[in-house]
Structures are given as C-alpha cells and as structure tokens.
Records
---
Amino acid sequence: MRIARLSAVVLLVIALMGPVPVGAAPAAERHTVAYDRYSVTVDGRRVLVQGAEFHYFRLPSPDLWRDVLEKIRAGGFNTVSLYFDWAYHSPRPGVYDFTGVRDIDRLLGMIDDLGLYAVVRPGPYINAETTGGGFPAWLKLVPGLARTSAPGYTAAYTEWLSRVNPIIARHQVTRGGPVLLYNVENEYQVNTDAAYMQALQDKARADGIDVPIVTNVCCDAGSWASTWGSGPGAVQIPGVDDYPQSFDCANAETAWGPWGEGVTERVRTDGPGYAAEYQAGAIDLNDTGYERCRELTGPEYMRFFYKNNAIASGSTMFSYYMTFGGTNWGWLSQPNDVYTSYDYGAAITEGRQLTTKYDEFKRQGYFLAAARPLTKTDPAPGPVSGNPAVQAAARANPDTGTQFVLVRHTDRAASTDDASTLDWNTPDGRYRVPVTVTGRGAQILVAGLDLGGQRLVYSTSELMTHATIDGRDIAVLYGSGGDGSGGAGSRGDGDRGTAGETVLRYRERPRVRVVEGTVASSFDPATGDLRLAYRHDGLARVEITGGGRRPALLLLGTHETVASFWRMDTGRGPVLVRGAHLVRNASVHAETLRLRADAAAGGPIEIFAPAKRVTVNGTATPVRRTASGSLLGTLRGPDPVRLPELTGWRGHDEAPEARPDFDDSRWTVADRTTSLSPYPPVTQPVLYADEYGYHYGNVWYRGRFTATGAETAVKLNAITGRRGSYLVWLNGRYLGTAKGGVEADAEPNNPDPGPGTFAVPPGLLTPGQPAVLSVLVENMGHNDDWTVDDNRMRQPRGLVGAAIVTAGASVPVSWRIQGAGPADPVRGPLNNGGLYGERNGWSLPGSVDRRWPAIGALAGTAVPPGVSWYRTSFRLDLPRGHDVSVALNFDGPLPTGHRVMIFLNGWNLGLYGGGMGPQTRFVLPAGLLRDGAVNTLALAVTAREPSVLGPVNLVTLGVQRGGTAG
Ligand code: IPT
C-alpha cells in the first residue's frame, strides 16, 4: 500500500497550535487515503468507487444540485465525478468568481453532507463539449501553446489552479471532506509534454492536494502506459475512458459495441483498474434527439457492458459519463458537437427525471455496494459451461474465496436465448448449475458470500442487495433476462417466468415459510444445503428461521419489481423501502422512521426498518405490520399542477446597428494587423472578435467606406462554429445571410461554410457618399483543443475576411466592432453576447417593455429579417411541497429561417430553431424559475428571412410530491 498523504507535518502543526479556540468549528475528522492494485482505501477500508459524472456548471441552480446529488446517491452511487470549468469562472485574466451558481465550495460541502465522495477534475483542459474545452476564450490572446509547458500558458493555468486548488484542498477526505481523488488534465495521451503533466501534479501538491492523483486516458491505454506509466508525468492511478457504443444515436437499435467490448484496461499494475469515464449516454452528434441516445445506451447496454467490464477488468473504480447531463445554457457549449441540451441520454434526464436506466444503475450499484468482497478480486478459474455459446468468466476474492461469475454469450452479438449447465466449483462445494442467457443479457452470479448471518452457497438469481434489519437478514434477488425494456434482442417480457435457484447453507434443517409466491424448497442434511427453486415473477417472499442461524427473509423478484426498492443507510443501520418514486433520505429516531421521499402517484409504500412509526416528509403516515414483518402504508400522490398560459406578449424590433445613421463612435476600432491565431485572416485588418475582447455570443461589425458607384458585391467570410451564421446590411438594406464556418482550415475536399457573396443592389450607393456595411455575426461557443498541435482553441470567431467587390479601384473600409458588455456579475461571463437588446438590458426582468407594442399571442407573429425581441411575464403558483420540473415548449415545425434565444429572468437558457438542433423543449430550472412570484421571459429572435413565430407554452416534465424541500 502506498500512503498518499504525509500527515505527520500537518499533525505537528495542529499540535503546536494548541487547543481549538472556543466557538471555532470542531476539527473535521481526518482520514488516510491509500491504494493498492485492488482498490482505493480510506483508513484501511477498501472502497468500491461507483461514480456519477455530474457538471454543476450545467445546472445553474445550487438547490437543484442537492436534488440531483440525492438522486445520484439513492441510485447506488457513492461518488460524484466533477469537472471544473475554467471558462465558467473567469471572464478575464486575473478575475475569478466562485459565488452563486459558481460556488464550488458550497457544492463540495453539499457532497460531503450527503456522504458522497468526489473525484475532482479541474483540467486545466476538460473537453466535455464545453466552450474551448474549458479554456476561457481570453486564453486565445495569451502566447504559448496550450496544454504544454509554454511559459504564457503556464502562467495562465497557474492562475486558475491557484484559485481552484485551495478550495478543493480544504474539502479532501484527508481533511474530513469528500474529495477522494484529484484528476489532472484530460485524455492527454495523444499529446507528449511529460514536463507539463508533472508540473500540474507538482502544482497540486504545492497547493495542498494530498489525495491520490489520477488522470483519464482515452483510446489507447497501452501507449500511455509505455510513455507515461512511470517517470515524469506519470500519475498514481491512470484511468481509461471507454465509450463502446460510440455516438451514433440514429443507429440505436443496431449498435452493439462498435468501439469494441469496452473493457477498462489496467494501465499500471500497482494501482486499481479505473474506468475514469465509462459511457452512460451519448452526445447527439447527428441531431437525432436524446431519447435515441438513451436507447443507444439503455438498460440492455448497461447490463452487458458494465457487468462485463467489472468482471473482465476487475476494476473497482467507475465513473459513468454522464449520469446527469444538464444544460448548455448561455454560451457554454462547444457547438460542433452539441446544442443547448446536454441531456446526454443519461439515467437522470435534463429535466431531473428518473428513467429505466436509473433503475439499472440502482440494481447494479446496490449490488456493488453490498458485495463487499468485490473490492479485492483476482481472475479465477470459472465454472465450465456445458454450452460453448455461453461463457462463464470468474473473479474471486483471495481472502474470502467469494466468487463472482459473469455469465454471458460467448459471441457478444448473439441475441438468442441459450441455456447451459455450469460445472461450478464453488467455495462450498461442486455443483451443476443450470443457467440461461436471454437475448443480450449478462448476469453476475455469486458463490460463497456471507449475507449478514447467512451463507449464500450460490444463486442463479442476481443479488441486488442484502441488509440486516432488526436482527433479520434480508436479501433482494432477481432474475436474468432483463427488464423487458426493449432494444435489440431483448425479450419483451423481461425476466418474468425465468427459472431461478438459490442455495443457502445451514447447520440443521431450517424452517421455511413461503410468505408470497411459489417457491419449492429442499434440504440436504449431508451438505446442509437449503435449495430454493422458483420462477421469477412478481415478488416472492421466503422466510427462513432456525437452522442455526438468525432469521432471514429472501425477496425474489424480477428486474422490474426489485427496481422499486430503495436502500438507505441510517445511524441505526440500513432500511429498505419499496414503492416511493424516490427515497432521498432516511433516519431513525426512537421508534420512528423519518423518510424524505417523492411520490409521483399515490400508492402503497412498504418499509423494512427498525421502527414502528413512519413519517414521510414530516407528516405521520399510518402503517400496519405485514406478514413479512414490514410496515405498509399509503403515499399521497401529487396535487394537480396548473401552469399559466403565456399571453400578453410585447414586441420590439431591434438592430438599430443596421441603420446607416446609428452612432457607433464608442465602438472599438478594429485596427489589429496580427493575431496569435495560426489561422491567418483572409483580409486586413484582423476582425476576429476575440482580439477585441468580445468572446461570447453575437458581435456586430460596422464598416464605413466612401462609395464609388462601381461596387458590385460584398464578399464576407465568418467563422462561428457549427450552427452559427451571419446577416448583412448595406446602408440599412438587408442583403442576406450565410452560414458561418466551423473551422478556418477545413479540408479542401470538405469545404467549410463561411464565405458569402452579396450583390449590391443597383442605386443603393451614391458615388462620393459614405456607405455603411453592418454585419451581425452569430458566434457560437469556441472549439475545443483535444489534440494540442493543431491549436484548435485558437480558431477564430467572427469575421475573418471582408472586401468590397468593385469594377474600379479597391475600396478601403474602416471597421468598428461591438460585442458583449462586461460579464453579468450574477449570471457569469457566458450568459450574454452583444445584441443591442442584451447591451441595453432587454433580456433582464424589469419593466423595459412598458412602451413596447402589445402583440398578444406569439403564434402567428410575422418577424422581419434582423433581430426582434418579445417579452412577457407570468406568475407561477405551484403546489407547496412538490417538485415540478417545468420547460418552455415550442410547438409546430422546427423553424429554419429564424432562431430564438431564450431568457428566463435574465438567464440565457438556450437556442431554439434556426439549425440549432432538434430541441423543442427547454428546461427552466427551479430556482431561476421562481415559484409564487412573477417571472419574465424574453425571446430574442434572429430572423435570416421573413418568418412567422409558432406557439410557445409551459409544460411539466415531471411532478412529484416531495422534492428537496420535502
Ligand atoms: C471524452 C472526454 O474526455 C469527455 O470530456 C467528453 O468530451 C466525452 O468524451 C464525450 O462526451 S473523449 C472520448 C470519447 C474520445
């Protein structure tokens, strides 16, 4: 074991400080973090890290962080993995903000309150489909190749780490907090600067990071191992990123591991296997919609690939990317891969709803937590399968002998149902065990496991969890064959009706009482084996007493029925709850179980707990004792929700910048002739928006020239990132629009959009008179920097070329540029761009629209080319003690001629239509959406052609009684 922390010095300092002054917070409990080839340990106890990737910056409402974190914990996770996004915190060099929605100290405190661990990933580079891959756009103006030891870049990232590391450091496990592991960089293996990787680690250590340092390796772990596995730059625990299903959500039905089996490779032999990012959803590369991404990575995929990975690799550290994806609000997205929603097809939707994927996480996560011997296993000789189509691979714990056997098809693509008999040498004897692999199923079967006071010899059902409650051992098991959720090769009826057998061992014949269901039992006095045989159907209940052991209750279910169980650990031991939509927390006080739980519908709730009385969200809930010794009560469903209609809209045309007489004298003169960008401008001067400090969102250009009368056209070129475009006016006349380019150095055989030629209408220009060209460029977020050498983070935004085509002498143009004002102190640097309305507060709540013309309903409103704003306000009154997820819903066909930028109470919550992606519903997160108060919606519509607006309304994405306030 390597001790990752040298605590002696710290302890000495504390000792010298003397007693803690009265009134100070008690010193948090300190722990030791270490690891060996099997697992990470905390104070010597092995931890199986079941991690959920969560991006706080994609959920701009700290109270909802708690909601999602509680859902993550209830789903069987013990860890959250967090990127920290440099760009999100820093509007300009030297300026950092960790307040409000950026308060990561609060976030880490919350994670600690919930008893979760955290893997922190502060980059500096994070990728993650965030603008610049996490790099603030101001870094484009800093000399030195990013993600290397170049001095300029080093100074910049040192600034970031000097701010973020101390916050992280005080929340480490070693100081009584949740931070268990510290991740440097992101998939750096395609790059080569070992000194940089080392410098990041030295910086972390100098800033007080004393937990193990990890990194996430992509694609080819081998090359990393040989180059970086030891020596400068090597981290203590390298992890691997695996995305076996790739990202083609359009082919959800047929994909079955296009990127391979997806088994996490062990990179170093002296550390545990670590699945740093294991695919749990997908970016919607083809604009197919995230529901298809959820199918691509649905329960079937999770069962096969996650179980396969766990047993084949013996990894004990997993992080699932993403478990909750969230929203690319403001200009957070890297536009070439994603649009506003970062739902990711994850287990918890963008609207914070639980899916069947969540159920699968729960089944597997509860198992990983309950099967403690899994934290230390070696490959073991597996049972011999009588049918070559069925494979049985095994791992065993060298101390307890417990075996974990993965049963799957030998050919991973096989979708038939196949039976086999395993010749299984278990720790408790040799058995012939019948198994069935249905469709693309995979099961982890266990042999030789102590279930509290019971001895599980083996079972052909899968174990979900076991708990000792009130002196009785309760185990929840379920069948093979899936949950019937559909997908390639899946059985429509799931595991209903499949056979199961569970063998337990006793000193003498125990009493067996089948409380519910049909279960046959037989006892073999020679071995002490009690064999239970049954078909998985509903939830069978078997009580076993005597036999020389304490009482036991087996709950034998199906995928579906066991998914309704929740396990919570209280100060008085574990409790099991069946029937609520979600259980957030449980505690036992005297003989009362206090539950915090959500109900999506009224119905029964069943509780196994050391208690006689129950309160749910503070309200006493009558319960009665059942034949299984549980408590049964009734949960109240939610009250009806009424959402207001969106009426009373007022509208205002914008874009005075297009008019020749607009006063731009305070705009920035565009006079730069050079840029650090390796992508040279097409014309002079340099018009790249970043060069003038306009980093996010729309920018305006105004070019003045003296007309000769010989002008025939205007030639422009802009790089906006995918989905951006630009609009052009000459002397106030709209000339048209073109798509912005994605990259300045696009392949010649795959030409990028960007260039646009606009004919000058005859008579528009008067020879000898001043003329004004106005261009609105809809910049999207910035490119990422996955590979260092092509310096993609320096891809320009805005105009990259502009010229007047003339039959006569060339026409010089003088340019001015205007973009976003100073960063919004509350909403942060990524909230706003440079539309006139944004610069003048039209996106904010307040009464700027008092004198705007009333237009009534939005649907049917004609919009001229250019920019128009529409505002309304509405009062929201949701039922108390409920969690209502609300979205703004656009009906009708996706518009192509205009796009809508959505502001709720000033927060930029996304882009609809106009090639922005297939999204029609935009989450309005509670917190930003104010309950019991008036809310302001402002829509900035950029029309590239005359357009008509469609209907828009509020919808619910989920309604539960309960919630974080419950
Ligand atoms: C992996 C990145 O590490 C992560 O930040 C995110 O971008 C993810 O992909 C895709 O959503 S990169 C790997 C797929 C090559």
---
Amino acid sequence: MTTARIAIDRTAVVAPLNRRIFGSFVEHLGRCVYDGIYEPGHPTANEDGFRLDVVDLVKELGSSTIRYPGGNFVSGYRWEDGVGPKENRPVRRDLAWHSLESNQVGTDEFARWCKLTGSELMMAVNLGTRGIEAALDLLEYANHPSGTALSDQRIANGSPEPHDIKMWCLGNEMDGPWQTGYMTADDYGKLAARTAQAMKAADKDLELVVCGSSGSSMPTFGDWERTVLEHSYEHVDYISCHAYYQERKGDLGSFLASSLEMQYFIETVVATADHVGNKLRSKKKIKLSFDEWNIWYLEEHQASDEVNDEWNFAPRQLEDVYSVADAVVLGNLLITLLKNHDRVASASLAQLVNVIAPIMTEPGGGAWRQTTFFPFSVTSRLAKGEVLRPRIDVGTYNTEVYGAAPLVDAVATADAESGTSALFLVNRSQTESIEVTVDLASLDASSITEAVTLHDDDVYAKNTIDDRERVGLRELSGASLADGVLTVTLPPVSWSAVAFA
Ligand code: AHR
C-alpha cells in the first residue's frame, strides 16, 4: 500500500483561526434568495418569510461572514429599492442574470436573516452603475445609530438598531467585460480609492475590500492588482480573489489537484500586493479576501441555453449538482485557504443556497445537503485555535495540467484553551488507499474523538432531488492513536477529518 508521513509541529503556526475564513455568499441570483432562503408561503417560514429549515442547515454548515447582495447583481442594484414597505418596492430588471427582481428582500431583511443564522453581514456596494454617494448613503442607512435622514429612515422601517456592518466590498469583479459598468484598472483604482476614503471618513474602523481580478486566467491578472493597489493601497484592507474550478474533459487527475492553482493564485496576489506596499514604503500589509471560491461547471452552463430570453422572477440558474469528487476538491481548497490563513484572512464559499451551493431547496418542499456541504461543515466545526502547517512526506502522481501533484494534502489546527486539535486530509489518488502515519507528539493529543471520511466507490455519486442522502460522511475506520502517532488509511479520492482531545 502507498504510504505517507506527516509531522505536526505545534510551533509551526500559520495564524490564529479567524472564523471569517468560513464565510459564504448570498446573491440575488436564480433561486438563492427567492425560493431559497426566502419563501413566505413555506410551512417553515417565519414572520419575515425566511425558511427556518434552511436556517438550520446554514447553522449546521457553520458559515460565518455572508457576502451580499452580489456578485454581478450588485453592479446594477439600487439599494433604496429594497427598503421600506414591501408593497411599495419596485420590480426591476436585473441585467446581470437577465431576470426580474421583486425587491421583497433587501438590506433590513437580510440583516435580520444574518442574525437568525448567527452570521456576519459583509456588504457589497454598487460601483458599476453608481458610486460614492450611493455607497455613503447605504453606509449611513445601515450603520449610523440615529438622528440623520437615512438612519431615521431605517428606524422608521422597523430596524431601530444599526446593522453595524464592518466589512464592505468596493464593487464586484470590475475588470470583467460581463460586469455592468466594468472599467480599466486605472479608472477602477481611482474610484475605489475615493470611495474608500469617503467611507472611512464616516467610520475609520470599516474593513474595505478592493476588487482584484475576477480570476487568475484574466489577461490582466497581476497587472490589475498592481494598478488598483497603487491607487488605493492606503485606503483599503483587503484585495479580493475569485476562483472556480471544474473537471474538464474527463481529466479527474488534474481536477483533484485544483488546489495547486489556488496556491499559485494566492502567492501571486500576495507578491503583487507586497510589491506595491514596498514601493509605497508602506508599513501596512494588504490581506486577501477570497470572497468567491467553489466548484462551478461554468463551461457547461455557458454552452447550454439555460440563460432565458424571457424576464422571469427567480429562474433556476447555476443549480450545479455536486459529486463526491467535487466535494473532495472543495475540502482540499478549504485546506489551502487555511494553509494561507496568514494572508487569506477572509473567504466566502460562493454560494450558499441553490446557486452553485451546498444547500438545495424545493419550493414548498424540503431542503437537503449536497456532497460539498460535508467537508465545509466539519472543517468549520472542528477547526479551532491556531492553524498549523504540517510537513508532508508523500509521493506524487502526474497530472496533465499541473505536472507532478502530491498524492496527499493536509492541514491541522490546535486550540490551547479547549485542549483539542484536528487534522484535515485529502487523498488525491484515484486508485490507491494511502496509509498515513502522523507524528502528533507536539500536540499532546491522547485520544481520537472523531474520525470521518467522505468517500464513495462511485466518485461521481451525488445527492439529488430523488435521492437526497445518497452520499454522506462515514466513519474513517481503523484510525488509531498510540504514543503520539496517528495511523489512518485514506480511501482513494477522499476527504477526511480526525479530531483529538
Ligand atoms: O457566483 C456567481 C458569479 O460569479 C458572481 O455573481 C460573480 O461575481 C462571479 O463571476
């Protein structure tokens, strides 16, 4: 059997765990909001029309920060449409997704939904069709306590307490020709800097995210980050990264190694940001907000005629159904985000419900977990304290896209307060189980409290509307701990977690 050795050094700390790494994303797109989190006629709906069965699953998923309301949607959004009496709210066309927006959910409702789910709202402002004034107005409406025109309007609309939103995105993917109002790096960098400067004049403690490239395959990747940051460096705190992965042309081996691309992406953005910082002689370090990441079968969507020519409310869009292989890759991407947590301080799995999502719903019916739900929820629940970078000694396999890829990847966390620790691992081999020996001596772990794996003999097994529990977590059999050494056997194409006390 193939073997691997991992050594965990308690002093090899990447960063203290910030729960913002477990963020997600709710966009007014398809059935994410309407018929997803919000369905007033549903048997589990509360007085705001929010489905409580979905709320329960969101809590179980363990997502922290939720980015809202887009995405591409935000670049045509008028936030004022979504506040005040619901019967007065206008129906608008959403050009980004070619659908109709009823505005029945807006800032106040979504802030209440975040409270229900125990999550933090991360708001995006429209820098596509709008600009500084609309951003400042929304900030005043959402965060100012009282006694101004817009804060009093919020109070009159039934939200007496300010929403106290700390993290704000300065537009979305402003380099993409698909974005309403897309711009050059120079134009966007100047606008972002001026918007950020004005928002911080209102509240210096805001945390602002400037748009990076909409993907590492954009022709301007790198140059975009450099130019935008040259304009905005001293006014912003984060630069965004967006990445979606998919299996292409049956090349599962390369797909399973997708996190190598994410690693390259992160290193490039960090190097570019630090280059600008050094050039500006700045003492500050820009953090990364990986605020869109996931598996997305985008090329299939683009090839299909799914985008309707009609104008409909909440059409079914981007409803990818995920396999075991997809979930293993997602678990590996989360391992990569954690390994880079010293710079990737915040991340959002895109998206949360129905739209490329871990949670699916049917109108009037149930809600269920996709395969990708499991690695996210377990990592979010078990990871605590500090993130540790393990040393991994393992062989490689050959991939078409990335060349040699290590067969195993892993990351660990340890929490001094509770005395618990956890290890998250993937086996990328399609054929071999791998016996892994892990030296945990520096962790003081005396027992295994949980050992689970996501694996199936059919790597393309999925949870579908007709078979909602086809795939789930299983016990990772045979895991044993003796004299500070853990031994586990990872099945092929699997994601696993082991927790210790
Ligand atoms: O998450 C789906 C879309 O992907 C978002 O709206 C956009 O920002 C990205 O291109």
